[in-house]
DNA sequence: TTGAGAATAT
DNA sequence: TATATTCTCA
């Protein structure tokens, strides 16, 4: 879903307006199917009855002019947007063209946003400065795919080595910042801590590895100890695999059983806990309840 | 100086 | 509640 949008936007960037129009017009009703704009929609009697001030009838010139205005404003909007994006890329000096979002290094961005006296910032055009101050970076949404990737990398590294920078590098997702990962990792740790506190003290590592209630402890043990097929401490997960997070309709995600988890660490034999399968269950997964029942 | 992690803000 | 930002400390 998201990928589709990105693809279209990319096409939009590279193909120019003419192709855009093809894109925009695809699937739209033909001119014959539409009521001509030159036609007055409300009969004068009706307009009079409802005290609607009659609109002056439109000529083809009016219609064309309106159409051109619309295109012009769209193009203006588009070029401003592109300028803004280019500006961010320049400032961050990072290749984030394959973004999940238009992210950037928060520290560098902050410096400019706070109206710093940096020479480069001063040299910017008023338009760029204004745009840059007002445009707020969209927040990253941790899609199930992205989170799955995160979980895979954390599991791969083991909790000891799972630090934001390393996770970010192994996830290999364009535009993902260390801050994004750190924030998510923080949430993840809180989640795992909560799970641990709910966990029965007598739980053995084996239990942790095989049961549906696999806990973060199994991740702590990391890939080395818990993976039956794992002889070298690796989980067979391709590292540094270029990853394009994709939005997936939730019903599809819900229908995803273990078989649907390509690349899920083998340590999750029997399937990762519900909270890992459907990650945005950080707040909904209750391991104790699942054990009891 | 940098990065991790916690605390706090949005 | 999710994510971003800021702060502290190693």
CATH architecture annotation of the domain at 144-195: Orthogonal Bundle
Going by CATH, the homologous superfamily of the domain at 144-195 would be Homeodomain-like
Mean pLDDT figure: 49
Category by helix and strand content: mainly alpha
Radius of gyration, in Å, reads 27 Å
Q: What fraction strand?
A: under 5%
Quote the distance from N terminus to C terminus. 36 Å
What portion of residues is helical? 40-55%
Using the alpha-carbon principal axes, give the shape.
Answer: elongated
Sequence of secondary-structure elements: HHHHHHHHHHHHHHH
Number of continuous helical runs: 15
Q: Give a quick account of the main beta sheet: strands, pairing sense, barrel closure.
A: none
For the secondary structure, the number of strands is 0
Provide an overview of this structure.
This protein has a domain at 144-195: Arc Repressor Mutant, subunit A (Orthogonal Bundle), CATH 1.10.10.60. The longest helix is centred in the first third of the chain and has 33 residues, at 60-92. The model is unreliable at 1-31, 33-43, 73-134, 202-281 and 283-293 (pLDDT under 50). By secondary structure, it is mainly α. The protein is elongated and about 80 Å long. It has helices at residues 2-25, 44-49, 60-92, 106-113, 119-123, 126-134, 144-157, 164-171, 178-198, 205-210, 216-220, 222-226, 250-254, 274-277, 287-292. The chain contains 15 helices and no strands. The protein binds a DNA duplex (10 and 10 nucleotides) through residues 106, 110, 137, 139-142, 163-165, 178-180, 182-187, 189, 280, 282-283. Residues 134-193 form the HTH myb-type domain. One of its GO terms (molecular function) is DNA-binding transcription factor activity. InterPro entries: Homeodomain-like_sf (IPR009057), LUX/BOA-like (IPR044841), Myb_dom (IPR017930), Myb_dom_plants (IPR006447), SANT/Myb (IPR001005).
């Amino acid at each position: 879903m998201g990928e589709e949008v990105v693809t279209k936007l990319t096409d939009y960037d590279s193909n120019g307006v003419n192709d855009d129009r093809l894109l925009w017009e695809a699937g739209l009703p033909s001119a014959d199917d539409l009521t001509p704009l030159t036609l007055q929609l409300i009969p004068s009697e009706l307009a009079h009855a409802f005290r609607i001030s009659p609109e002056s009838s439109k000529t083809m010139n009016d219609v064309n002019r309106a159409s051109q205005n619309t295109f012009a404003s769209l193009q203006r909007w588009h070029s401003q947007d592109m300028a803004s994006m280019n500006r961010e890329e320049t400032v961050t000096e990072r290749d984030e063209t394959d973004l999940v979002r238009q992210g950037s290094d928060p520290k560098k961005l902050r410096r400019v946003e706070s109206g710093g006296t940096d020479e480069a910032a001063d040299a910017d055009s008023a338009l760029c400065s204004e745009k840059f101050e007002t445009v707020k970076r969209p927040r990253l949404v941790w899609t199930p795919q992205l989170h799955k990737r995160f979980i895979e990398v954390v599991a791969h590294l083991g909790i000891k080595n799972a630090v934001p920078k390393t996770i970010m590098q192994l996830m290999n997702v364009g535009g993902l910042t260390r801050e994004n990962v750190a924030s998510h990792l923080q949430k993840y740790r809180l989640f795992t801590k909560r799970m641990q506190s709910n966990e029965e003290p007598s739980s053995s590592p084996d239990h942790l590895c095989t049961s549906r209630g696999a806990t973060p402890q199994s991740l702590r043990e990391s890939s080395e100890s818990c993976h039956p097929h794992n002889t070298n401490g690796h989980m067979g997960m391709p590292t540094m695999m270029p990853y394009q997070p994709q939005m997936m309709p939730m019903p599809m995600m819900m229908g995803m059983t273990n078989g649907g988890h390509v690349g899920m660490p083998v340590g999750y034999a029997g399937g990762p806990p519900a909270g890992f399968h459907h990650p945005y269950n950080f707040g909904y997964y209750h391991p104790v309840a699942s054990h009891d029942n």
